[in-house]
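In this section we walk through a basic example: taking a raw amino acid sequence and producing a predicted 3D structure, encoded as discrete structure tokens. The instruction is simple. Fold the sequence below.
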Amino acid sequence: MDASPWTLHEGDSLAWLATLPTGHADALVTDPPYSSGGQFRSDRATGSTIKYAQSSYSGASLPDFSGDNRDGHGFALWATLWLSEAHRVVRPGGVVCLFTDWRQLPTMTDVLQAGGWVWRGINVWAKPAHRARPQQGRFRNQAEFIVWGSHGRMPSGGAVHPGLHEGVAPVGEGRSHPTEKPLTVMRDLVRIVPPGGLVLDPFAGSGTTGLAALLEGRRFAGCEITPHYAALARQRLATAAGDTLPATAGQGLLELPDAV
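The resulting token sequence is shown next.
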């Protein structure tokens, strides 16, 4: 029987990354906790489900996820740690893609470089205007951003990938995570990884990055600290891969899918 093309570990991302072999992955594609919020400390400390709730969907029953209430300095130091460790795990020439919002965009471009990566640009997810929160007398904040770069020099050649994902609506009713990203955007991103390549996600949430990777013929290794979302991600990945979920899922799973 062939080995499964995915693995999902439940636990702390930094501890998990430290167990992985050097140069084994082809890309880091992740949507980490933004630790953003509003102008004040109390805004940042609000539970994640309430903070990211939209009137267009019912998300009140979703569990909160952790790590979203750090202050600016704490976020920068923490992100530099896991970005440095992920830089070791991703092979030279591999790619990094990090989701962020407008408040944390300057910090994310700094920590990307502090972690040893070469900053190469910003991808934009532009949401439909009617799905952005309107504020009278102000510009709409209707975009989220993907800061991207590489582990040193990138090989030349290959397809040209989109830098703008325009008019893609956020996941509404039926979303499985408060900050779940659209599958179409994630599939666009993972295509920068060679077919059969390994996509790394230390903040897997409900597993959308992994689902996109599997649907695009890539492999996936992820980590999620919240038990509810780790179990959900495992179920989604197993379904996509046609696997039977083992009874012991959730224990260990530190291995990476074998290279192809």
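Looking at the output, two observations stand out. Residues 247-254 have pLDDT under 50 and may be disordered. The CA atoms of residues 196 and 218 lie 4 Å apart. In the next section we compare this with other chains.
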